[in-house]
Amino acid sequence: MTSLRVFAARPLVIAALHLPDFGKMRDKSMAFLEDYVATNARVFAEAGVPYVKLQDQTREAGAMQPGPLAMTAALGRFLKSEVPQIGLGIIVEAHDPVASLAIAHASGADFVRLKVFVGQAMTAQGPKTGMGAQALAYRTQLGRDDIAILADVHDRTAVPMSSETPEFAAEWAQKTGADGLILTGADWADSLARIRRAREAGIKRPILLGGSVTEGNVREALGLCDGVIVSTALMRKDAAPADVLRWDVDRTRRFMDAAMAAR
Questions:
Q1: What is the tens place of the pLDDT at every residue in 72-106?
Q2: CATH class of 5-261
Q3: CA nearest to 81, candidates 105, 100, 108
Q4: Strand blocks (E) in the chain
Q5: What is the mean predicted confidence (pLDDT) over 58-64?
Q6: Is 256 helix (H, G, I), strand (E, B) or coil?
């Protein structure tokens, strides 16, 4: 582990709190969004989750636009003021490390998640090239080396456009300067195999599993990697689209109980 704050959590569980697509949002006020992020962040905090990742989902072809950037930063800052006991991370849908880090800087976040950090990948929005060098340069410009960079390696929502193995790409990400790596395979078995191969290849950075983690398998996951990212497994099954409360505190508590058992 490194000395960065996010990696001190035991167990390291990051719950993803998804924001609406601001480009499609017509009927939600800023007051509603503030209520939404605070209400659901309290669920995670009350259950003992150490970190929440505020996840912008505004689909954009290029850089993040000023409106979604400002709203995400404002909501992140509001979340920190309303639920100060929980740590905060930022991810944006746009392929824009400057926006991610700027939001983290303004909101007081502890980390950012960057999806295409090295190499090149084809995504639903088109090809994207590794943003690692730009991210490191801008973080230095901000003077914020305390904001951890968590880099996905061959994220399963994209298709690599070159033939390197996931463990080779993980080595690229480590050498480029990612503070932690996120590995997520096509399914559960593939995810665990990727983590094992990365460790066998000599990856020393903290590794997080980025998907398909549940109450039933989190203990296995944390026996192999340094942390997990979770969201769907904690959501209310009976939530209506207009509901403010989307995550289930009882399910989240059970998940954290299982995670604590692996510590």
A1: 999 999 999 999 999 999 999 999 999 999 999 99
A2: alpha beta
A3: 108
A4: 12-18, 51-55, 87-91, 111-114, 120-123, 126-129, 148-153, 159-160, 180-183, 207-209, 227-230
A5: 90
A6: helix
